[in-house]
Amino acid sequence: MQGLRVKLAIMFGWLLLFYNIERYHEPINLASFVYVYAAFLTIAIVAIKRLVEAPVVPAMTFVLGQFLVIKWLRGYEVFGASLPLTVTEAVALGITYGLALSIARSLRHFEISVADVFSMHPQGRFPAFVDSQAEFYREVRRAREFERPLTLLTIKSDGVNDTVKVNRLLWEMQRRAVTRYLDARIGHVLAEQIKDCDMIAYSEDHYVLLLPEVDCADIEQVVDALAQAVDQETNTPLEIGIANFPNDQVTLSGLLSHAAANTRRHERWQTGEDEGAAEDSEAPSVRK
Fold first, then answer.
1. Do both 162 and 275 map to the same domain?
2. 91 and 216: one domain?
3. pTM
4. Could you list the residue range(s) of the whole structural domain that residue 19 is in?
5. Residue 139 in contact with residue 250, Cβ under 8 Å?
6. β-strand partners of 265
7. What is the pLDDT of residues 195-215, one digit of tens each?
8. Which of 64, 91, 119 finishes a domain?
9. In angstroms, how far is CA 259 from the centroid of its own chain?
């Protein structure tokens, strides 16, 4: 945004100079239509998306060619003794075009960045838990019927720390955007780590993972590997709730309640002397 403010300041300064150039230097007498043409050119470039994406050289050639045609049609002398004035007018239009294009592209990049951030909500990538609840329930019923182990995890980021004092509304918007971004990154990592037979869904502010055939003996290793992968990708601590079938609960709602009640902060996957070695190694795949 700082760059955009600088570009706007330069543009305003240039327009102030351009529209008063005849007062500053009387020998210069620009054609009256040039001022109107420059204004419409600036508005068109900022407002029309296609003009922003157009190649610069062909677009600039078209603008200057159109300027020369309009000047000739309006009865102004283009060449001869008026050539220096024509060049001055063309240079002025070129500078106006370049500044307007730079501002329009900065605005376009800002729009794309905002759209990317707000489109990264996990709800767009993963099914909502309320829509996937029947599938989760069937998997729990299968484990109960065939007496097979199963583990359910609830995972969410530890959140964004309130370390900066700014306008509260702006801070809430920033916090929400960063949280969505982190949730999307975490979901991407989790989806890469789990097996095809595992299930993942997003519920309000956390992920729900259902891991068939994972018993109590394996769950700590799985959780550590998930935490390591997320930590290396986002440097974000996780809050992970664990519930195992049949040791903890035997129904889906019971597993969810048990996982929610047994949520703990899982900041790093390794501690102590192994931590340095972890930084040099890649995150292992959890269940491939």
1. yes
2. no
3. 0.45
4. 2-119
5. no
6. 239
7. 888 889 888 788 899 999 888
8. 119
9. 31
Contact, 195 vs 214, CB < 8 A?
A: no
pLDDT of residue 284: 46
First to last CA, the chain: 43
Query: Which ranges in the chain belong to alpha helices (H)?
Result: 2-18, 21-24, 32-47, 49-53, 56-73, 83-119, 129-146, 168-193, 216-234, 252-261, 275-279
Tokens, residue 10: 């330069």
Q: Checking DSSP bridges between strand 206-212 and strand 199-203, what pairing results, if any?
A: antiparallel
How far apart are the C-alpha atoms of 136 and 139, rounded to whole Å? Answer: 5
Q: Do 142 and 275 belong together in one domain?
A: yes
102 and 134 belong to one structural domain:
no
Please give the Cα distance from 244 to 248 (Å, whole number): 5
DSSP 194: S
Which tokens hold the place of 240?
């992970």
- Same-domain pairing of 253 and 219: yes
Q: How many Å apart are CA 41 and CA 76, to the nearest integer?
A: 20
